[in-house]
UniProtKB/TrEMBL annotation:
Xref: InterPro entries: GerAC_N, Spore_GerAC-like, Spore_GerAC-like_C, Spore_GerAC_C_sf
Compartments reported by the entry: Membrane
Protein name (record): Ger(X)C family spore germination protein
Main location per the UniProt record: membrane
Domain Spore germination GerAC-like C-terminal: 211-379
Tagged with keyword Secreted: no
Membrane-protein topology: Lipid-anchor
Coiled coil (UniProt feature): none
GO biological process, one term: spore germination
Family per similarity comment: Belongs to the GerABKC lipoprotein family.
Length: 388
């Protein structure tokens, strides 16, 4: 009897040991980007259309190229269904490599889909999928998401990698918001906080542009609208998300370029006599790397004029942002709700369900912006080369 037990144990160890469910790497279909649209062509197949960008390893590593429209380094496969789960499974019947999502870099969602009831369910799928990483970036386009993945950039074989690289340049461009991770969106959804996602548009068959941002209401989990580049720069000043970049101002009708080294924003909520006010203080420090004006930066008066011109420009951007966000979209992407709930927790309990929906206390709030700009003489030009 003991011998039989021994053999049974050995047999169980034999059949359950090792990588019994493993898939060889050459049999995996590495998906690095997906685009999700509403299915407009064949409604019978389901309302959702999923474009998946598969890597072709041999081509991408041995000189294959995505240039000239060849698309040799990648393959985009489009499928439809009632759910994302169904669209993914349908692809398995059309490719010899099983879709694998652990290396996915990018999710692009169309405007129509982001405004529909399907959007929260799609986010839920990607958040729950075991192979999905929370660092995966997500973008929104007013165009067709599948078309964004069809570009053939000249300096990169894989469109998804090219797009992700552009999205990280926000530290050089004040008109870009930081890349949006799907994990960060999950945090916003849990707290009912409104949020923004980078907006992407297709310029031509070879190029895309990160242009402005898409605004989502945290209560409805739906897209409420887009913000253009000028207003986006103002939003970045107010939220404190600005990591650098250039700003052009005019001093006596001549252009001066201000390179921001440090930007700090403080938001102070004030609640008195039933009225809500937010005092926003923006402090910047930077240098003048380029100027089309003849002036001497050692002259205190010239410095003051330049700082005032830069301050006025920042005020211009923030006014655009406030009008677009508070007055038009009526959605708090400034993060004011977080500041208010910390300072006034009791009042927040009465307002939280009507903050930027219903009564919309956010829309009724007053926003005052104060700007303090410093031109750092260290590293700047001393006298303009245009000076005679």
């Amino acid at each position: 009897m003991r011998k039989w037990k021994f053999f049974i144990v050995i047999f169980c160890l034999f059949i359950t040991s090792g990588c019994w469910d493993s898939i060889e790497i050459e049999e995996r279909g590495f998906v690095i980007g997906v685009g999700v649209d509403l299915n407009e062509e064949t409604e019978d197949e389901g309302p959702l259309s999923l474009s998946q960008q598969f890597v072709i390893p041999t081509e991408s590593s041995q000189g294959g190229s995505g240039e000239g429209g060849s698309g040799d380094a990648f393959q985009n496969i489009v499928s439809s269904g009632n759910t994302i789960f169904e669209t993914v499974r349908r692809v398995a019947a059309r490719t010899n490599r099983s879709p694998f999502y652990e290396h996915i870099k990018l999710i692009v969602v169309s405007e129509e889909l982001a405004k529909s009831d399907h959007f929260p369910d799609i986010l839920d799928y990607f958040l729950r999928y075991p192979e999905m990483r929370r660092g995966t970036q997500i973008m929104v386009t007013p165009e067709k998401a599948g078309d964004i993945l069809e570009i053939t950039p000249k300096n990169e074989k894989l469109p998804a990698i090219y797009i992700k690289s552009i999205s990280k340049n926000n530290y050089k461009n004040a008109r870009m918001v930081p890349p949006t991770r799907i994990g960060k969106i999950h945090e916003n959804l849990l707290g009912d906080d409104s949020y923004m996602i980078q907006m992407i548009v297709k310029l031509n068959p070879e190029e895309v542009k990160i242009s402005g941002q898409a605004v989502f209401n945290g209560y409805t989990d739906k897209l409420v609208g887009f913000i253009e580049e000028d207003a986006t720069e103002g939003v970045n000043f107010i939220t404190g998300e600005l990591k650098g970049g250039l700003l052009e101002a005019k001093v006596k009708d001549e252009i001066v370029v201000y390179e921001m080294d440090k930007v700090k924003t403080d938001i102070e909520p004030v609640y008195e006599k039933g009225k809500i006010k937010f005092n926003v203080t923006i402090k910047t420090t930077g240098t003048i790397p380029e100027s089309y004006k003849s002036f001497d930066l050692l002259d205190e008066e010239e410095i003051n004029q330049t700082e005032e011109a830069i301050k006025d420009k920042i005020h211009e951007f923030t006014k655009l942002a406030i009008k677009k966000v508070r007055d038009d979209l009526k959605t708090d992407i400034f993060g004011f709700s977080q500041k208010f709930r910390v300072k006034y927790p009791n009042e927040w309990e009465d307002m939280k369900n009507d903050w930027d929906i219903g009564e919309n206390y956010f829309q009724q709030s007053e926003i005052e912006v104060n700007v303090n700009t410093v031109v750092d003489r260290s590293g700047t030009i001393i006298r303009s080369s245009l000076e005679e």
